Amino acid sequence: MALSRSLHGQHVVVMGGTSGIGEATAALLAADGAEVVVTGRDRARLDAAVERIGGKTTGYRLDGADQAEVTEFFAASKRPIDHLVLALSGAAGSGPIAGLDLEQLAAGFAGKFWPFVRIVQAALPRLAAHASVTFVTAASARAAFPGTAGLAAINGALEAMVPPLAVELAPIRVNAVSPGVIDTPWWDTIPSEARTELFTGISAATPVGRVGHADEVADVIRMLVGNGFMTGTVTDCTGGANLATGR
Percentage of residues in the chain with pLDDT exceeding 70? Predict the structure, then answer.
């Protein structure tokens, strides 16, 4: 029997939903009638995000890297979760390999890879029979940009898990969206002028001629969430930056 693509009344959890791709996704799903729970570490940012998102949205303060907080969150869930979106991110672990701080690389895994694994484990007893789980990874996983080997390792490890998880957890669906360079607060640690220069250079080498926006990635996540015939996939949303263009 085909499952409805409508999200009206469905219970959705967006982990890391207080800014950028996570917030854009929560807003899109809430506008589509879902009852959304967003999580974040900072209470003030969380409350502000919930107000911006609107709809039937609630916020839950937790650190996705804290095993006890994650376990408590899912144990307290009062209804099955229809869709789980993992949008936690981190920037630790980048830099040329010759001087890469291995402690920072470990911190990168601790800030993204391990939280994703822990969250999936903790969420399993609360997922609905035909739930979906969507990872937000990064195009660095399969790109070849100097200085991103550490990020490639973190996101590549997550993407490698998607197909076997889709088979192991079926009929729960497991997918990932792999964004390219998206103009979000993730880049705010880079000074404004340097960020503008970086985006300009990337735009010139990208087929669509620009960097992406968070709502464009959210559109892909919405598709993966709603399409009951998609599982085990990693879907690129890069503006074509991952293509061999011959330039």
Answer: 97
Residues with Cβ within 8 Å of residue 104, at least 6 apart in sequence? 92, 93, 95, 150
Among the listed residues 198, 168, 166, the one whose alpha carbon sits nearest the alpha carbon of residue 183:
198
Q: In 3-state terms, the chain is what percent helix, strand and coil (to 5)?
A: 45, 20, 35
Angle formed by the axes of helices 67-75 and 114-123, nearest 10°: 20
Q: What is the pLDDT of residue 185?
A: 78
Provide the 10 A C-beta neighbour count for residue 170: 12
Question: Measured between alpha carbons, how far is 1 from 232 in angstroms, rounded to an integer?
Answer: 20
- pLDDT value of position 192: 81
d(CA 225, CA 20): 18
57 and 36 in contact (C-beta within 8 Å)?
yes
Q: What is the pLDDT of residues 174-187, one digit of tens each?
A: 999 999 988 887 77
Nearest to 208 by CA among 188, 187, 236: 236
pLDDT tens, position by position, 130-173 = 999 999 999 988 888 888 899 999 999 999 999 999 999 999 99
